Amino acid sequence: MSEQDAAEEATTSDDGDADTEAADVDIEGAPEDVDTDEIDLDDVAGEADADLVDRIAESDPEEIARELAALRSRNETLETEVEELEDKTEELGDKLKRKQAEFQNYKKRMKKRREEEKQRATEDLVGRILDVRDNLERALEQDEDTEIRSGVESTLRQLDDVLQAENVAVIDPEPGEDVDPTQHQVLANVESEEEPGAIAEVHRPGYEMADKVLREAQVTVSEE
């Protein structure tokens, strides 16, 4: 090697060292100049994966195998539980639909039964009233000179028995009683010997059935 070549090699070596030192300085000072927007997330993720690989490499293989087996077992258990819950949900949904259908059918049967019972009750009542009508008709067929009062009274008693059997009660207040707006219809205020505001006279009786007023009694009231 000539002296000139040796001198050039020495110069190149010195320049390389200088560049290296400059590079080292730049790297050490880099954090102050780094723009966080330019950070590559893939690099960060890669470093995290590398750390994970390092930790796994440092761990006991048998322990890792046991943990993985436990995780797989737990995952299988969870999948089985999810399937069971899905089956149970479907089963409960089917039961609910059947119960709803059964309830609707029950409501229809009960409605039909009530209508039939109401119809039978009406038919029975009308049948008994027809007997009363027959007795009244026979009384009117008597000769004009025949006393029919006793027959009419007997027929009236028969009609009252029919109404009583149907839980129908007569609303027939006595003069002097207080007016009940739920059972009495006041026709007029009249002069009367009764106390002011009390019932003076009953013009037409009323009727109630099972505590429900079918027709109010018509009354007059003593003037106040």
What does this structure look like?
Among the domains are: 85 residues; 56 residues, Head domain of nucleotide exchange factor GrpE (Nucleotide Exchange Factor Grpe, Chain A, domain 2), CATH 2.30.22.10. The strands form two sheets. The protein has a three-stranded antiparallel β-sheet with strand order 1-4-5. A three-stranded mixed β-sheet has the order 2-6-3, with no helix packed on it. With 224 residues, it is of the alpha+beta class. The protein contains four helices and six strands, in the order H-H-H-H-E-E-E-E-E-E. It starts with a helix and ends with a strand. It is elongated. Keywords: Chaperone, Coiled coil, Cytoplasm, Stress response. Pfam families: GrpE. It comes from Haloarcula saliterrae.
Number of strands: 6
- Low-confidence stretches are 6-36
Secondary structure category: alpha+beta
Question: Distance between the terminal alpha carbons, to the nearest Å?
Answer: 152 Å
Question: What order do the helices and strands follow?
Answer: HHHHEEEEEE
Could you give a quick summary of the protein structure above?
65% of the residues lie in helices and 14% in strands. The protein is an alpha+beta fold. Among the domains are: 82-166; 169-224, Roll (Nucleotide Exchange Factor Grpe, Chain A, domain 2).
Name a few traits of the molecule.
single chain; 224 residues; alpha+beta; Nucleotide Exchange Factor Grpe, Chain A, domain 2; three-stranded antiparallel beta sheet; three-stranded mixed beta sheet; 4 helices; 6 strands; 14% strand; Protein GrpE; chaperone; stress response
